[in-house]
Structure formats: structure tokens, C-alpha cells
What we know:
Layout (H helix, E strand, L loop, with lengths): L36 H11 L8 H15 L1 E2 L9 H7 L1 E2 L1 H14 L4 E9 L17 E11 L2 E4 H5 L19 H4 L5 E2 L9 E2 L4 E8 L2 H8 L5 H11 L6
Parallel strand pairs: 1-2, 6-7
Antiparallel strand pairs: 3-4, 3-8, 4-5
Helix pairs in contact: 1-2, 1-3, 1-4, 2-4, 3-4
Amino acid sequence: MTCSAVTSWRGRPLTPTTSADSSGSVTATPILDWHGSDAERLYDRVLLAPEAPATPTSFLRTAHTCIRREVRGVYALDDQQPVSTTIRRGRGSCSQRLAVVEGLARRHSIHTRVRGLVLHGEFWYPRFRYLHGLVPDRVLLAWPEFLVDGRWLDASDVFDSGDCAIDAEPFANCGEETLFDALARAPINWGGRSSRSCLDLSGFVAANLGTFDSRDDLFGTYGQTIVRPIRAIIEPFFSRWNAR
């Protein structure tokens, strides 16, 4: 039995709030505070990386690589944590590290938006083998999309090298490879518009809430997965628990 009592989903309809795709933005937000000094320093390091990011796609790939190297994966729970805080602490959840990519993208004048995906809690069972009862029934995921050369690409499209092997190692959602890390080796398919499915995770999607101009808008509309009082109690521990 999963722990639905600690989530924000009880009584909340899981249906899209908009009928059209959002237009995205490059504007800084409370979460995507790319104008902060910590974000600026990381942005400068991305520009000076050996990969020499000359195109929007190469910039995003280099940013992802730098974040993997400088921000270690932990099980933090606050999806509305500012990008600057994640960078300063040097640790973050998959959601928080994806937000850092978005923040640097906006700093680089690349429009971003997010797709709201509600995932079945079972997706995280392998990571919390003995704590299934504490995993929420449903988990809200903000999945980034980037406007490149006039068309929207989701994170898998951006980081996909084109070498999609049919026998790609499945994503087990355990060990050191997190969802954020898996993006670098094979495209992830959540269903819908993607025709490629090297890592097909569409079976875990309970609802697709559509696109939002920012993760601020998504979480402002639906709230975070775990309610604030519970987060306040367990966040100090989870935010330091290394993903492994």
C-alpha cells in the first residue's frame, strides 16, 4: 500500500488545464533564477568547456554534462527549490538538476517549458526497496522541453546522440544511474509524440497534464507531490541521501 496521505493529489483532478501548447519563455523565475551569481558562474564554466558549445543543442548537452559532474544526485523533495540553491549546495534531485539545465538554457536565450507528467509511484520502488509504503501513489514530474531551431524538443530529443541501440540497457531506476543520468545514454519515451523508445517508460505515466511556460506554473497549479508539512520533516535527511 502506498502512502497517499502525504501527497497533494487527493481530490485533485488530473486533467490538462490548457488545450494548447505553452509558448515557453527565457524569463527568470523564482525557481529558474538564472540571474544569480552561482548560476552565472556555472554558465561561464559551460561556455569555457572543452566541448565548445557553438550551437543551442551542443550548449544544452554541455550544460547537462557539467551539471552531472558538479551537482551530485540526491533524493531531495523540494521541486520548487531555486536553481541557485541547488548549484550552491552541489547536490540535487533529478527534478532539481533538470531545473538547472532549464535555468542555464534561459540564460543562453533558449526558450524552455515543461510537460507535466503524473507517474505511478511504482516507478520509484526499486530505489526504495524497503520503503514502498512511503512512496506516494502518484508523483508529479516536470519534464523539460527546449525551443531549438524553431521547434520544441523534449529533453530526450536534445540529449539523444542518434545512436539508439535496440538492445539498450533498460533503465532500472536504481544504483548510481538516475533518470537525469540516463538521458545522456539513450532517449526516454514517456509516450505521446515520441516515436523512439530505447528506454520506454510510457507504462508508468498515469496522466499527461500538458505543457506549462515554466515549472513554476506547473507546481503553482498542481502543487508538489508531497505536502509541505511532511516535506519539512523529511527533507533534511532526503536532501543529503545520495542516489545509489
